[in-house]
Design a protein that fits this description.
The complex is a heterodimer of chains A (113) and B (113).
Chain A (H helix, E strand, L loop, with lengths): L3 E4 L2 E4 L5 E7 L5 E8 L3 E10 L2 E4 L7 E2 L9 E3 L8 E8 L8 E2 L3 E5 L1
Parallel strand pairs in A: 2-11
Antiparallel strand pairs in A: 1-3, 3-8, 4-5, 4-9, 5-6, 7-8, 9-10, 9-11
Chain B lengths: L2 E5 L2 E5 L4 E8 L5 E7 L5 E7 L5 E3 L5 E5 L4 E6 L8 E8 L7 E2 L3 E6 L1
Parallel strand pairs in B: 2-11
Antiparallel strand pairs in B: 1-3, 3-8, 4-5, 4-9, 6-7, 7-8, 9-10, 9-11
Classes of the chains: A mainly beta (113), B mainly beta (113).
């Protein structure tokens, strides 16, 4: 089944404790992206990657890191989480093609205390 | 640059009534337009998209949307609401590049029995 998977689905952590949210897709998509969803703000892009070893900042990159060492994986790293990073996070993937839709993972709900 | 405005953060309809969710966009290039649906505790899934050609686009679950360039709108409609349509709906616009996709703030649809 074609899908985007994320782990963990739920995470409660404390300020400053490094964490990684994994994302993997099995559709051989070149493009991958991370979004955060906050009430009233919709989805805002954190980072994206057009292909292996190619990453770039989205609209809200502060406090986050990513890497793209393999085509299928695109982990999101919070090296020193803060309470304002409490949010719902989505990973998405797509072909690099005009007008192509993005496929989304199930989401990771992160709470930083 | 692209942007999306969804009018109404909450819409409530009775079962069997018309569903109308409004979306206006801004784009410096001919846009690609999308509607996504998010059911509770799930990721976003594509309802329908407009790329080129026919301006009335039909999607899954009986939804359709019409691209009106003169009004810069892409409103989502369904003739008869069903209880299972209760969800959050996001309109999105993209330009020539995958990383240009921008989402509206979302509209939560409630369906009353």
């Amino acid at each position: 089944e074609a899908q985007v998977t994320q782990n963990p689905r739920y995470l409660i952590t404390v300020t400053g404790k490094k964490l990684t949210v994994t994302c993997s897709q099995n559709m051989n998509h070149e493009y991958m992206s991370w979004y955060r969803q906050d009430p009233g703000l919709g989805l805002r892009q954190i980072y994206y990657s057009m292909n292996v070893e190619v990453t770039d900042k989205g609209d809200v990159p502060e406090g986050y890191k990513v890497s793209r060492k393999e085509k299928r994986n695109f982990p999101l790293i919070l090296e020193s989480p803060s309470p304002n990073q409490t949010s719902l996070y989505f990973c998405a993937s797509s072909l690099v093609r005009e007008g192509h839709e993005q496929f989304f993972g199930p989401g990771t709900r992160l709470t930083v205390l | 640059a692209q942007s999306v405005t969804q009018l109404g953060s909450h819409v409530s309809v009775s079962e069997g009534a018309l569903v109308l969710l409004r979306c206006n966009y801004s784009s410096s290039v001919p846009p690609y337009l999308f509607w996504y649906v998010q059911y509770p505790n799930q990721g976003l899934q594509l309802l329908l998209k407009y790329t080129t050609g026919a301006t009335l686009v039909k999607g899954i679950n009986g939804f359709e949307a019409e691209f009106k360039k003169s009004e810069t709108s892409f409103h989502l409609t369904k003739p008869s609401a069903h209880m299972s349509d209760a969800a959050e709906y996001f309109c999105a616009v993209s330009g020539l590049n995958n990383n240009d996709m921008r989402f509206g703030a979302g509209t939560r649809l409630t369906v009353k029995p």
